[in-house]
Amino acid sequence: MTGAESTQASLHEPDPVRPTQEDAVAAAGSELIGGPVGRRALLGTSWWTPLRVVALVAIGVFALGLVQKAPCYNGAWFFGASSQYTKACYSDIPHLYQGRGFADGLVPYFDKLPGDMDYLEYPVLTGVFMEVAAWLTPGTGTIQHQEQWYWMVNAAMLMVCAAVIAVSVARTHARRPWDGLLVALAPAFALTATINWDLLAVALTAAAMLMWSRGRPVAFGVLLGLATAAKLYPVFLLGPLLVLCWRAGRWREFGKAFGGAAGAWLVVNLPVMLFAFEGWSKFYRFSQERGVDFGSFWLVLAQNSARPLSTGTVNTLATLLMLLACMGIAALALTAPRRPRFAQLAFLIVAAFILTNKVYSPQYVLWLVPLAALARPKWRDFLVWQACEVAYFLGIWMYLAYTTSGDAHKGLPTDGYHWAIGVHLLGTLYLCAVVVRDILMPERDVVRLAGDDDPSGGVLDGAEDVFVFGTAARPRRHALHFDGPRVEWGRRAAAAPGDGSL
């Protein structure tokens, strides 16, 4: 392309979206670093591209989360059960180093564990992650010293996952790289990142979303299959994708995605299934047998009932509620006046699973953070939800401090903890409500207001509908999506995203 042609093409390419121009909260927050950046400030020879800024901020905030765990690292994990709760620095990682046999060199899924937990209760790919960290942990010194090293090794590996998540979100919406800062700066993300190993599945899911946005369904499927081999929730993304591909008539691409996901999941799981079935199936048996636990509305019902529901009954009711939610999301996708964006439905389906599940561990918020940033990149709504999650994060540790401090009763009593659960539920429902509103009223969707159709949709971006119901069946469904040239630019930029100013 000649210089003249390049200049002419650039005139038709919309600038990357700058949140400080479209979002009042982002503009106000930018005053902390000198105010909104000019249009050309970060272009040209500057090293500070949006992707680099997002990645460095994600690593920096993750490091702050590690500092927040310092009181436990220096002794609270080992000396006194309640201090790790009153200081809100609890983590499963050091406790499970010895509790799940890694300190003794036991092989996950193949070697039985002492006590009631007969095998490791995690999916296979997460077990591999845990085992690799154990290999890298020095086996000398006291057990406390080894547990400290194990946590640090895992923290370093999880930091890579955090950077992958933030960068994947920044690259998924090519014209909105700064939306990655929603992930990088999310307070609940930093507070919960090293509680457990959820970031592995979240990173694979975020990378899968990026691949789908680039029109690579097989790569999307492979990454989603690997994510499902690390945690169950990513498989739910295939449901919304099925409905969207049904509406757009993109069956071939969905078939490739499904095949890639099934194949990748089998490659990881099949060897363990064949040679250690009892150990492999422990995760699924544990999920079924586990009773009502922390964070769910089921726990509030159980603790306020003279005759709590049995585990089997809760399993059945939770499954029915999830099925109803899936049916509602499918109906929404097929009847909305304009085909919803993939990220919107992905967020709703995972949120539905979290809301109906019989347990909500504080680190489960990590599942939603990247999806929320893609579904509703509006700082006010995002921060309202994050405030609710931080309140729950503090609430559960204060409740555990109350239950483990004996007669001292330090912390939050049961009624107070129920309020914390309610705050978490209301915050998640609020974000679901504004996403549903955006679907029903697409003119209020901040992504589409900028001129895009579905930048995370890949082959769905700008595609016409072939199967719709209700209001979506009106003739306007084939109208151009706001601005045709912007949609076309989005496809080109997806292949090689450029720099943009904040």
Automatic annotation (TrEMBL):
The chain crosses the membrane at residues 47-67, 149-170, 182-212, 218-245, 257-277, 314-336, 342-361, 382-402, 417-436. It is a multi-pass membrane protein. It is found in: Cell membrane. It holds the Pfam family GT87. Keywords: Cell membrane, Membrane, Transferase, Transmembrane, Transmembrane helix. Residues 1-20 are annotated as: Disordered. InterPro entries: GT87, UCP010361. Its main location: membrane. Residues 1-10 have a biased composition (Polar residues). Belongs to the glycosyltransferase 87 family. This is Glycosyltransferase 87 family protein.
